Request: fold
Amino acid sequence: MDIKRVAIDAVNEVIVLTVPHMDYKGQVTKRINEKMPLATVKGFRKGAVPRAIVERHYGDAIKIEEVNKVVTLALERFLQSEKINLLGSPLPKVNENFNWKDEDLTFEYEIGIAPDFEINLDAKNNIIKYEIVADDAMLDAQVARIQKQYGKIISQTVVAKGNDVSGVFVNEAEGINNRTTIDLEELADAKLAKSFIGKKVGDVITMKTKGLFHDAHKLMDYLNVSHDVVHDLDIEVTFTIDEVVAHEPAELNQELFDKLFGPGVVTSVEEVKAKIKEDAEKHFAVQSEQKLMADVQDFLIENTKFDLPKEFLVRWLQTVGEKKLSAEEAEIEYNRSEKGLRFQLIEGKALAQSDIQITFEDLKTFTANAIRQQMAQYGQMNPTDEEVEGIVARVLSNQEEVKKLSEQVVAEKMLQLFKEKANPKTKKVTYEQFVAAMYNE
Reply:
């Protein structure tokens, strides 16, 4: 058999396989011989059908099957021996002049190849690593929320100052229909907030979304709309009141402190704030790392240029998956996943370039840490090593979990590598400032 690669460009090639008749003829003859005693053709007894008739009835199908076996095996071995870094998998190329009656048969397969490129992790960048601080205003607000949460709830018939009002926001044209609870102090318009006073269950208030809250992002929760629309959303909504409650704040005493943090863990409001600050900033640190990783991805994708075999990959996407895609659907899917594919290639190159490998011990350590953090969230602060190791073993026995965790380990190593090489600037911000930076505002 003759197999060769024909380059189209740096990321597209065609593999040409020419199969001479001697590579399949012997197996076809063997299959015909095996078929002879079993062949059933009208007008002949079983096993007594002349060879020529058996060949005419079954020969073409047997030839196609045996040639396909030869081609599939040869293509697989060739790709392994050539060590080609494929994107997608080979696609058979249509040849209108192909004829199965020919003795020597030629097949062509299109392949997409991962591009060769260089990355510079030391390149100058403007990436910022945010250190998010829980400021006094946030801590005071959180203490007030705790007092409200653990205080007495008193049902009201008429809205008064300081009450919470529950109800349903509606705008049929925009598909808004969301039940929520409003703290009237969060409304930006004092006149609107005052208009609630004296209202009862069942009353309807109409308001504008533009400037409704001090922070436009609150529309995402109150109206259940996406971030993409909140800043430009300027419509009327109705709010139908269905519940009014007053809150008698809980006293800031040892009984409340013990309920929040366990007996004797904190003994003063200052210690409560310190504990809230510690927990909040741990949570903020995770969010900061996530943003840093996203910014790193965007920077590397923007600054690492290479071509992809787009047309090939769009055609390949039409052939994979349970549901076959149209050309238009495959194009949409490619555009949706292109950024991820580019970063996957960059990530692999960076790790290889820095000789970083993922070991099973890395995976076990990462999984154990994740489990300890999750257990801490549910109040299990000091699980034994034996307990954690048992959970790790169960988790890592699931191949899907192993795959997901491996991707997280790779992302973590990639982030550490970038921190070391690129040295992003650190900036202290409040959570509100971080949110604004996250949405580029």
Observations:
- The longest helix spans residues 269-303.
